[in-house]
Design a protein that fits this description.
It is built from 13 helices and 19 strands. The longest helix has 20 residues, at 358-377. It has 3 domains: 28-179, Lipocalin, CATH 2.40.128; 191-337 and 421-507, Rossmann fold (3-Layer(aba) Sandwich), CATH 3.40.50; 339-417, no CATH class. With 509 residues, the chain is α+β, with helices and mostly antiparallel strands. Helices cover 29% and strands 25% of the residues. The chain has helices at residues 2-11, 186-189, 247-257, 282-297, 314-321, 339-353, 358-377, 381-395, 399-409, 412-417, 423-427, 446-456, 494-507, and strands spanning 31-32, 35-36, 87-95, 99-109, 115-121, 126-130, 132-137, 140-145, 150-157, 160-167, 169-179, 196-203, 210-217, 224-230, 261-265, 302-312, 329-332, 433-438, 463-467. Strands 1, 2, 3, 4, 5, 6, 7, 8, 9, 10 and 11 form an 11-stranded antiparallel beta sheet that branches. Strand 1 and strand 2 form a beta hairpin.
Length: 509
């Protein structure tokens, strides 16, 4: 049972590429054959009776000799080429115990004669998971997904792919060509950007870092209040794009229409910005936010004395640490607790929403606590990685999978932030602060963070608000679970955008 808890736990430790805030993740809604997989009410697999769908698989070695007696028997007669597999394919995996989960396999040419494979597992909250060591062996395509501990081996049979999927248990799978309708994103579709828009570049917070972004200036006279918009994900682009939502684009438009100039930018090493994203820490992102503030203040038409910073999640921390005496800060879903506390709470809340038994949640929390302690107490990154590998192998992962996870758990960003307490920096803020949280946020729980935020801020114009029925990205939500993000059509609820615009106008009068 502990191994079943492990996969869900690692996914919500921020190690696995299915973290909803990761911009590289690309969600899809797909149909396979006559059945629309969007309409299947499924749960995340779990429990020993569900075939132990855990993190014990590194690739597809165990699948390489599959076939003959399975559903894909007879496929060996055809020698396959990449053209047999190109496209998007969707199917439903049925596991012992009666549970089901969807997978979407995406296969595209890479331009160099090879192909790229990614996997979506919507019911595990995983999107855009990269395949590794994809190869065609006779009639069969084989590829591993180390970040999910999964592998797949399929052959083309008529208009479908048939074979085996393995994630702890090895199960038959049948995939049909998908039809992927475009997401409905009505707010973005309705944007009328009838104001000045400039593509800009400026020096970042370190030598060799050039940040690229977009400046928007309202119509009218000079002397605009202005705000830098800082995304919450370390590898995010200027729009904080996820699941075809672009929340910072929608927010920038709303603010510009309200008479507030905005600057948003690709994080270092992302999009058109240069620099090393992998090596960057929250402190580095704060120096970039400071550089963005200096640049915006110098723009003709902007009132430098009425210019501040808005940050989402860790972008809020960057805003607080940036210095430069901004006129104001807006902090959206910013944690006030050390990261290990936020991540532990996140894992438990998401697991509980998915129906994970309390006993399993306790086991998962115990392992997470051990992993964090190993990282926090190690004198070097190399020793931290060795300690993490040892813990994960003892928990049931293979050495290769454990090594992959250890690499993520010892990223410079996480090593920096794991024990960092934001409260002293918040108490030192001398400017007005607007802090907003959604009461459906399962990523940064409002009940655990908003009270400390309110206690830390002492400027008379500061305001802390918990907004009802909004999730981590300030979308109207039912449960707040990550599985809803893609299906919610609203990118950014108008109510918090109005609050932000009106508050900035008030404190910069």
């Amino acid at each position: 049972m502990l191994r079943n808890a492990l996969l869900a736990g690692l996914a919500w430790l921020g190690l696995v590429a299915c973290d909803a805030s990761t911009p590289a993740a690309s969600s899809s809604r797909a149909t396979g054959g006559d059945a629309d997989v969007r309409d299947v009410g499924l749960q995340e697999p779990g429990g020993e009776d569900a075939g132990t769908l855990d993190a014990s698989v590194d690739g597809v070695a165990m699948l390489s000799d599959a076939g003959g007696d399975g559903e894909d028997a007879g496929a060996d007669e055809h020698v396959a080429t990449a053209a047999d597999f190109l496209g998007d394919w969707a199917g439903i995996i049925s596991v012992p115990g009666g549970r089901e989960f969807r997978i979407i396999l995406r296969i595209a040419e890479d331009g160099d004669g090879g192909f790229i494979v990614t996997l979506d597992s919507p019911d595990q909250g995983a999107y855009g998971i990269p395949g590794r060591d994809a190869n065609i062996d006779g009639s069969r395509l084989q590829v591993g997904f180390p970040l999910l501990g999964a592998g797949i081996s399929v052959a083309r049979e008529g208009d479908k792919l048939v074979g085996l999927f393995s994630q702890g248990a090895t199960l038959p799978v049948q995939l049909m060509p998908t039809v992927i309708p475009p997401f409905a994103r009505p707010q973005e579709a309705a944007l009328v950007r009838d104001y000045e828009i400039r593509e800009v570049t400026f020096d970042g917070g370190a030598e060799g870092v050039t940040l690229a972004g977009e400046l928007t200036l309202p119509e009218g006279n000079d002397g605009f209040p202005a705000v830098v918009l800082v995304s919450g994900a370390d590898a995010s682009n200027r729009d904080m794009e996820l699941f075809d939502h672009r929340p910072l684009l929608v927010l920038a438009d709303h603010l510009t229409q309200a008479g507030i100039a905005t600057l948003r930018y690709d994080n270092r090493g992302v999009g058109q910005s240069t620099g090393d994203n992998e090596a960057a820490t929250p402190e580095d992102f704060a120096t970039d936010a400071a550089a963005a503030l200096r640049f915006l203040r110098a723009v003709s038409g902007v009132d430098a004395t009425r210019t501040g910073i808005l940050g989402h999640t860790d972008g809020g921390l960057a805003a607080v640490l940036a210095g430069e005496a901004p006129a104001f800060n807006v902090l959206l879903a910013m944690p006030t607790q050390p990261a290990f506390e936020v991540l532990m709470r996140r894992s438990r809340d998401v697991g509980a929403l998915q129906g994970t038994p309390e006993e399993v949640l306790d086991q998962q929390a115990s392992l997470q606590s051990q992993l964090f302690e190993a990282v926090r107490s190690a004198p070097s990154r190399e020793q931290a990685q060795a300690a993490v590998v040892n813990l994960l192998v003892n928990a049931g992962l293979s050495p290769q999978r454990a090594s992959d996870e250890a690499e993520g758990l010892t990223r410079p960003w996480l090593l920096w932030i794991l024990d960092y307490d934001p409260l002293p920096a918040l108490r030192a803020v001398q400017t007005p602060v607007l802090a907003l949280y959604g009461d459906k946020d399962l990523i940064v729980a409002a009940d655990a963070n908003a009270p400390d935020m309110e206690a830390a801020l002492d400027h008379s114009d500061s305001s802390v608000q918990v907004l009802p029925k909004l999730n981590h990205f300030f979308q109207p939500a039912t449960t707040g679970g990550p599985g809803e993000y893609a299906d919610i059509e609203t990118t950014f609820d108008p109510a918090p955008m109005d609050i932000i615009a009106e508050w900035i106008a008030d404190v910069t009068m």
